[in-house]
Amino acid sequence: MKYDYQQFYRHIAAPFRQHPVALSLLRGINLVIVWIMYLVYILLLLWAAKKQLDTLWKLIIIPGIGFLILSLIRQRINAPRPYEKYAISPLIPRAKTGDSMPSRHVFSATVIAMCGLYFNISWGIILLFLSIGSAITRVLGGVHFPCDVVIGFICGLVCGFFLFVV
Questions:
Q1: Alpha-carbon gap, residue 161 to 155, rounded angstroms
Q2: Which residue segment(s) compose the domain that 51 sits in?
Q3: pLDDT tens digit string along 107-117?
Q4: What is the number of domains present in the chain?
Q5: For residue 48, which of 1, 32, 56, 101 is within the disulfide window of CB 3.0 to 4.6 Å?
């Protein structure tokens, strides 16, 4: 049986196209998760600068190096986005081409979640769930394939793991 991504995407996007409130909610959740993660990261850096200055470098260097490596790999792969490869209209408006694999949004959210996990297990788990929420919204929004967000999530976990071993 051949996998038909266009049909899959039309199926998962249909409820959002039929219900404008659901579409607004999807777009809003996507945006809110992005801003929550950025805000959490800034707060973690400020907290570490005040309380645990010796770990601040980990919170900057490890995610930073991971982000740069992921960006270079993603640029090298230059995978097309779903709306480039198939005749679909994404629910989350996006004009960017290429650089779909792996998802940098999901990677960043996951690394930030791992930074949170480094300091507090409960908050880290909540942030990991938000990272998964980001992955889901990116696929539902039509800006990434499922494999893009899964690889982004795994890369974020691997990068974040270094916080615990360095």
A1: 10
A2: 5-165
A3: 999 999 999 99
A4: 1
A5: 56
